[in-house]
Amino acid sequence: MKYNSILIILGTTVWTDQWTAYNRITALTGLAHQTINHSITFRAVNGMHTNGVENLWQCAKQKFKKMNGTCDAHIQS
């Protein structure tokens, strides 16, 4: 399976919702992984949530729709 490598500080815990595709995060990366069950709450007991990143992608999708799509030149890594 191919995935993009990014710089993550050792000891980081990755927080996601419970989408099935995220189940292998620990196996693929070795990082700790915790989930938030959105059918119960949108915030974990320690205050963590995924709303910030979900909002970021929603804004990006709206902009891309207005542009009638995008190409690799418009997205810098």
UniProtKB/TrEMBL annotation:
Extract the PANTHER family matched here.
Answer: DDE_TNP_IS1595 DOMAIN-CONTAINING PROTEIN (PTHR47163), SI:DKEY-17M8.2 (PTHR47163:SF2)
**Which stretches make up the ISXO2-like transposase domain?**
11-73
Q: What is this protein called?
A: ISXO2-like transposase domain-containing protein
Any Pfam family hit: DDE_Tnp_IS1595
